[in-house]
Amino acid sequence: MAAVEPLTVLSRWYLYAIHGYFCEVMFTAAWEFVVNFNWKFPGVTSVWALFIYGTSILIIERMYLHLKDRCHILIRCLIYTLWTYTWEFLTGFILLQFNACPWDYTDFDYDFMGLITLEYCLPWFCASFIVEQLVIRNTLRLRFDEKTDPAAAVETTGTANGYIKND
C-alpha cells in the first residue's frame, strides 16, 4: 500500500490563503449588492489578502489543535475572533505605513483608527466557526499519496446519463 502523508505547512497555508481571498471577494460583492443594490456583484480585495488570510488561518489552525479538547467551540470562536481583530489591526497598521492598507473603516461607527470595526464582530465570529469546522478540519484530513503516478490514473469512460463507469 502506498504511503500517504499529511499536507505540508506550505500546502495548507496556500489552501487557507485561497479560501480567505475567495471569501473576501464574495463578501465585498455581497456587501456592494446589499448596500448599493449593484447587480454586477463587483467583489474586490488586495493581493495582501493572500498573505493575511493564509497566515491568520494557519495560526488559527495551531490554536484549534491546542484548544479543541480544552474548551467549548463558542469559547474557541471568541478567541479566534479576538485573534482576527488583533491580526487585522497589526497587518493594517503595517500596510498603512506604506500607504498600502486596502481597507478603511473610518466611516463605521465603532472603528479604531480605521483599521478595525466592532460592527464586523458577528461576521468574524461566524467566519471563525466556519473556518474551524469546515476549512481547517477538512484541510487537516487531506493527504498526499507520494507513490501514485498521476500519469497512470485509472481511465474511465463516461456514459450518456452523466455517470462514470469504471471497468
Automatic annotation (TrEMBL):
Q: How the protein sits in the membrane?
A: Multi-pass membrane protein
**Which residue spans traverse the membrane?**
13-34, 46-65, 77-100, 112-131
Q: Which InterPro entries match?
A: CmpB_TMEM229
Protein localization = Membrane
What cellular component terms from Gene Ontology apply here?
A: membrane
Task: Name the keywords, alphabetized.
Answer: Membrane, Transmembrane, Transmembrane helix
Q: What family is it from? A: Belongs to the TMEM229 family.
Q: What is this protein called?
A: Transmembrane protein 229B-like
Taxonomic lineage of the native organism: Eukaryota, Metazoa, Chordata, Craniata, Vertebrata
What would be the name of the gene that encodes this protein?
Answer: TMEM229B
